[in-house]
Automatic annotation (TrEMBL):
Protein name: Phosphate selective porin
Key word Cell division present: no
Keyword Iron-sulfur found: no
Originating organism: Sphingomonas sanxanigenens DSM 19645 = NX02
InterPro entries named in the record: Porin_dom_sf (IPR023614), Porin_O/P (IPR010870)
Native organism taxonomy: Bacteria, Pseudomonadati, Pseudomonadota, Alphaproteobacteria, Sphingomonadales
Keywords on record: Signal
Stored Pfam families: Porin_O_P (PF07396)
Signal peptide start-end: 1-21
Length: 494
């Protein structure tokens, strides 16, 4: 640093040589000397401030309050319980003066902004821990190929973006939090998660939060698991068919209660985000509870139940459904209801049971949905069930989130980017779907085997091989039909 100071002084002296060569007068020479002395003093002061900033940045930092990481909608990674703290990595040293303005470096350091690098993106914390901010994103890229169908129109090879999201999340203080995400997967801007929330502790071991905005359903095990966390490329038929007509989202409020072995939620919403304000929204009331009667470090038993009731808005009486059975990106491969109009509402309910022991997990779900029709016609009845399981051959634990009773992002023991093998999971699932009550209702089933390679906690590669069967009385692909679909995905979640 002394050499740097001497260099600065020498540079100032050299800069003065041309002026001296012009043989200025005594007054001009005095002014020039004072000017050069002031410049040298200013350079020395700036260098001293830079040294001080580097010393502060390299010193160990005190533990700070944890970031407010809001529950992922479609990816329910929960924040730590309020009033808990944990240390984070020290702040990095700022860049040199050649890269950034010194004044800005000093201003940021004086503000005490902390940066923690987590799942691929930074989390910013104010000095007092009161403010947090984090960008978030999701990129799910799929390739699917279907063959073996008796209909050439079903034997397709397609590509698609299951999700292409960008968003933000953060909080103010211990209690207030927010999240906003948009999706571009269909080459259109679609608002998905968008809410504000408040959380607090009632007593030791009992907490709550209340969220308001555009909310993701808390409905069943896979129905509450984010698209970036499901162990298969697509959710099972219970999640895709036993669902309100408005879909996975709605604008409203959701209070949730958490205790050490489970949680309960109640959701009241209208329609999802749209531009229709000329008629009243539909109304959906949905509740879910899950319980872990056995809960240990390497084993958990999961029990759950849920239900919803939906009143359709005026003019939204079409109940026609075509539910995926062999993957998302084959529009011809569906179990369909046929054309159904005159709907007035839906009611659905389901149950879930499963858990894990060490690296092996198992989950079974079943549900039923009654779609009410006008003019005295019988309900359209939908029945679905599934049994799924997986084994982490590398010994990693399943990414079960006991706070929400759903899957989240895994904790990979040996990430590939640190020289390890990553986490390797083998999966299998059988699912069934049946539409009953009308002559046009179809039925089908699918058996899937798969493999997931988690390079680290937020990057993975998935492969699913599906044998499927459909029997649709109506539509372009009627009668009994069988075939196979092979799908793969590359996924990155921030």
């Amino acid at each position: 640093m002394k050499l740097l100071k001497a260099s600065c002084a020498l540079a100032a002296l050299v800069a003065a040589v041309p002026a001296l060569a012009q043989t200025p007068g005594r007054d001009e020479l005095a002014d020039l000397v004072r000017l050069q002395a002031a410049e040298i003093q200013s350079l020395r002061a700036r260098i001293d401030r830079l040294e001080e900033a580097q010393q502060i940045a390299s010193a160990p930092q005190e533990p700070v309050a944890p970031p407010v990481v809001v529950a992922t909608q479609e990816a329910p990674a929960e924040p730590p319980a309020p009033h808990r703290t944990q240390p984070y990595a020290p702040q990095l040293a700022p860049p040199g003066p050649a890269d950034r303005d010194i004044a800005r470096v000093l201003e940021a350091n004086a503000a005490g902004v902390k940066t923690e690098w987590g799942a691929g993106l930074p989390v910013f914390h104010s000095a007092d821990g009161a403010f947090t901010f984090k960008p978030r994103g999701r990129i799910l890229t799929d390739v699917s190929s279907t063959f073996g169908s008796a209909y050439d129109g079903r034997n397709l090879t397609t590509t698609g973006m299951r999700a292409l999201r960008m968003g933000i999340e953060g909080g103010v203080g211990t209690h207030f939090f927010y999240q906003f995400e948009t999706d571009f997967s269909e080459n259109e801007v679609d608002v998905v998660t968008a809410f504000i929330g408040w959380r607090n502790r009632i007593s030791p071991g009992i907490e709550y939060d209340v969220r308001a905005g555009h909310l993701f359903n808390d409905r069943g095990f896979e129905g509450s698991t984010g698209s970036d966390s499901t162990p298969f490329l697509e959710r099972a038929t219970v999640a895709t068919a036993i669902i309100p007509q408005r879909g996975f989202y709605g604008i409203g409020a959701m209070p949730r209660l958490f205790w050490r072995t489970g949680h309960a939620s109640l959701t009241v919403t209208g329609d999802r985000v749209d531009g229709t304000q000329t008629v009243s929204d539909g109304r959906t009331v949905l509740g879910r509870v899950h319980w872990n009667p056995l809960k240990g470090d390497r084993a958990i038993l999961h029990l759950g139940a849920w239900g919803f009731d939906e009143a359709l808005a005026a003019g939204a009486d079409t109940l026609t459904r075509g539910t995926v059975i062999g993957g998302r990106f084959n529009g011809a491969l569906r179990v369909s209801t046929g054309v159904i109009t005159g709907g007035t509402g839906t009611t659905g309910y389901g149950a879930e049971v499963g858990g894990y022991v060490g690296p092996i997990w198992l989950m079974a779900e079943a549900g039923e949905r009654h779609a009410r029709l006008d003019a005295g016609r019988p309900d359209l009845l939908t029945r679905a069930w599934s049994v799924a399981g997986g084994w982490f051959v590398t010994g990693d634990l399943p990414p079960y989130n006991p706070r929400l009773g759903a899957f989240g992002q895994p904790h990979v023991l040996r990430p590939v980017f640190d020289g390890g093998s990553g986490a390797i999971e083998l999966t299998t699932r059988y699912e069934s779907l049946e539409f009953d009550g009308l002559a046009t209702g179809g039925r089908g089933w699918a058996a899937t085997i798969g493999a997931n390679w988690y390079l680290n906690s937020f990057v993975r590669i998935q492969l699913n091989a599906i044998h499927w069967h459909t029997d649709n009385p109506a539509g372009p692909y009627t009668g009994s039909d069988d075939g196979q679909t092979v799908s793969t995905r590359v996924a990155v979640t921030f």
